[in-house]
Amino acid sequence: MKSFSLLSRGTGAAFLAPAGLLIGAFVIAPFFWVIFVSFTNRSLLGRTAVDPDFVGLANYFSLFDAATFFTRGEFGSSLILTIQFVLLSAVVGQAALGMLLAWMLRSVPRSLKHLTETVAIGAWILPEVVIAFAWFAFLDYENGTLNMIMEALRFPRGDWLLSFPFWAIVVFNTWRGTAFSMMLFNSAFSSIPPSYFQAADVAGASSWQKFRDIGFPLIRGHVVTDLILITMWSFNVFTPFLLTSGGPSYRTEILPIYTYRIAFRDFDFGKGAAVGVVVMLINLIFALFYLWVMRRRAKGVAA
Amino acid sequence: MRSYLGLYFTRIGFSVATALIGVFFALPLVWFIFAPFNPRAELGLSIPEPFSLANFEAVFQNGFAMRGLWNSLVQSVGGVILVGAGATLASYALSRSPIPGKSVITYILLLFSSVVSGSAAMVPIFLIINGIGLIDTQIAVILVFAGGLLPTAMFILRDFIDSIPKSYEESAMVAGASPVQAFFDVALPVIRPGIVVVVVWAFVSIWGSFLIPFILLRSSEKMPASVAIYSFYSEAGTPIVTLLAAYSLLYSLPVVILYLFVSWKFGFRFFGGIKA
Q: How many helices (DSSP H) and strands (DSSP E) are in chain A?
């Protein structure tokens, strides 16, 4: 019975075909196509739209041109902005806040836990255009809820999207994505045997000591998983576009928005593709690292 | 004694801190609870008096707005059918047939799908859709999402199918069923909860998405709600707040209902975990 298989090779291949075709056409083909286009001067309009020239590495030279690399609105500046955005909103914001929440939720009254989880998850699951509009109203200068609160607390009003656009999208992305980290850490903490914590309680350990010596070390693997996933998502997120369109004067133009502007506003597909290639290379590093961590963990369990 | 007192204070401190963070998460949404029911809603927070459904009436009478919701439904359901059917067949084949290198295939597909994000690949996706003549069609949006979501859907479902004993189908085949019959009549009913999870996840991903329809569609009568919502701005660029608020609420409803359904049925886990 061991060598018996339920599907013949032929049937198996037929079952795989529809998914294979779709993935081939819309995931694998774009991967190679973007590399090819990045070596051309393909555009949306004009002669090069139908008959692009091979330009070698010209698009990459223009991205990494030392003279303009750090100029606002150019590739280098956008890359640095994106790294800051990811570090602040994903690593510091989502992961740290998610960890804090997951830890505190273990010892607060049930109703408070339930309420907090509900609003955090609401922020995470609602459609991005709805969330962006809610934030647009929240940050409005004239009547926005935030300025209303500032006024009540006798602080000056702020024109947040104009004066602090970068911090606005950092806080926005933290707010939007913390639920994922919170839930992941939450379920990781609850997989720790309660007797560990009870023993620490008997010994009179403080909450911080329990976190430092029991909680955190035992979920370190989940922290790595979480950090890689949220870093990749924040690195590719387009949602801030809905709040700021990349402005004012490119100050919130993270790489996905930069790519969009180059390709679909300036119609320079070749250069837009080159940015896409760089983004995919960075994604690839994260994804390979993730798979490596996962495989190592799987082996560790088997051993 | 000191440690009991300590625990008590920790509990109070944590409760206060949690409540404050909870308020941080709730504040931007508070406006969104009142504004849809306020016929004079502005960007400012105000309690409507009286509560009214006038905004919703205006939205229901706006053919373009309703068309947007309908298009969202068409694109999401279309994508979900392809993802659900494609992933079920493919993951069943990966689990049950003697194809060599099965787990390598799954991992490579997963790798590709996480590297080729919508924002990195918007140029080639646009060019491929343009090349096959599907630009500005709803089927283009459906196909692109199906391709992008399939690897993850296959990964989830394969885990699920692997955990089901093969003896179910084997006994069916001993009784004379063909492999295809064993799949449809025996395996499929057992896999159904897994398919439901994948289908809900795919639906919510497509329903809420903005970028792909934004770059692939041109004519306004094909736009899903996520893009159509931007027509509720006056020519000067100021939003028509009353309509926007009511429309946003209508557009969010399916997501909220599906969330409640999933958490009631399966206990909420990582719903919508991987975004396009």
A: 18, 0
Instruction: Give the rounded distance of the alpha carbon of B94 from its chain centre.
Output: 25
CB contact B28 to A (< 8 Å) = yes
- Cα angle: A257, vertex A263, A266; to 5 degrees: 100
* Phi, psi torsion values for A295, nearest 5 degrees: -65, -40
List the single residue in A30, A109, A242 with the smallest CB-CB distance to B15. Answer: A109
Q: Above 50 in pLDDT, residue B273?
A: no
- Specify whether the CB–CB gap between B271 and B262 falls below 8 A: yes
Instruction: Provide the terminal-to-terminal Cα distance of chain A, rounded to the nearest Å.
Output: 28
- Which ipTM value was assigned to this complex? 0.84
Sorted by where each starts, the structural domains of chain A and their CATH numbers stand as 1-37 (no CATH), 65-302 (1.10.3720.10)
**Cβ contact A112–B19 (<8 Å):** yes
Q: Which fold has domain B62-265?
A: MetI-like fold (1.10.3720)
pLDDT tens digit string along A78-129? 999 999 999 999 999 999 999 999 999 988 888 888 889 889 988 888 999 9
B170, amino acid identity: E
Domains in chain B: boundaries: 2-52, 62-265
Other CB atoms within a 10 A radius of the CB of residue A139 amount to: 23
Strand partners, A54: A40
- Set of chain B residues whose Cβ sits within 8 Å of the Cβ of A22: 82, 86, 143, 146-147, 150
In angstroms, how far is CA A290 from the centroid of its own chain?
Answer: 14
